[in-house]
Amino acid sequence: MSNRKPRVLVTREVFDETLDYLRLHCEILDNQRDMPYAPEALGKALADCDGLLCALTDKVDAALLAAAPKLKAVANIAVGYNNIDVPACTARGVLATNTPGVLDDSTADLAWTLMLGAARRITEVERRIRSGEWTGWRLKQWLGVDVHHATLGIIGMGRIGQAIARRACGFDMKVIYHNRKRIAPEIEHKCNAAYVAFDELLAQSDFIVLQVPYSPQTHHLIGAAQLAKMKPSAILINSTRGGVVDDAALIAALKSGAIRGAGLDVFENEPQLHPEFLKLDNVVLAPHVGSSTEATRKAMAMLAAHNLVAALQGAVPPNLINPEVRG
What we know:
The chain is of the alpha/beta class. It has helices at residues 16-25, 39-46, 62-66, 86-91, 104-119, 122-130, 159-168, 185-191, 198-204, 224-228, 247-256, 294-312; strands at 7-10, 27-29, 51-54, 73-76, 95-97, 151-155, 174-178, 193-195, 207-210, 235-238, 261-264, 283-285. The strands form two sheets. Strands 8-7-6-9-10-11-12 form a seven-stranded parallel beta sheet, sandwiched between helices. It has a five-stranded parallel beta sheet with strand order 2-1-3-4-5. α1 runs parallel beside α12 and α5 crosses α7. It is globular. The protein starts with 6 loop residues before the first strand and ends in a 15-residue tail after the last helix.
């Protein structure tokens, strides 16, 4: 019997402790230079590998899987996995995993950062200070809106949505939510949140936070028709995935005053965001940093590594997306 360690490709730079753990169990091909693989190069690098530790920037599709006949497991360093063709993995018997749970609080914090920043126009007024436009205090200068006592609407009430809702208690907000399925009454009570229909949430909310996974079903979940149903004073927060919002429609709504503002951590076609965003004062922009704290990113990378090692050792990974592969 061969004692060969399984060979693993790590597609992006990770933390030293992640590599140290993987090296205990695997032969590693790392990418600490952090130069993203082009699809063809990724296929060539993966040709002789048993496992893949990848990021949301790596597309794992049928073509890549065909180039990697030895591949047994894919571990995504993210909770979302729209970069992975899960049915294609399942068809080839490849286990796919993600990293839920460890990033909930950090991502919820970032959603609140965007909400508060957009409400109080923080990025706009900072630019004005840096450009020398601030010449002194005035009563009606750069007025924002209050977050406290406002109505917060959350679309997507999973773990992160619930964490966002719990934080609203400190601001004495009314919390309403919409979800594919209504959550359990005890969770509603803990989050002080009430279930409403989708259109009702759009019409009632002062702040709307999106926290749904990206899929064909959620593509452009918020477009021109939905934006038209919001209050002119509403602020939209997208801290989930690009493509859930029609960016062009949002830009038009921000320009026309159909809604007051937005806070965005994700974009369609990122990192090539729509250039019109850069011309707007009423949008707060962040470069997909929802989970980007040192502790959280380390936890994500290590959880992905644990998932991968478990899969390659024949155990059930802690966060298996396609359990049907195991039968």
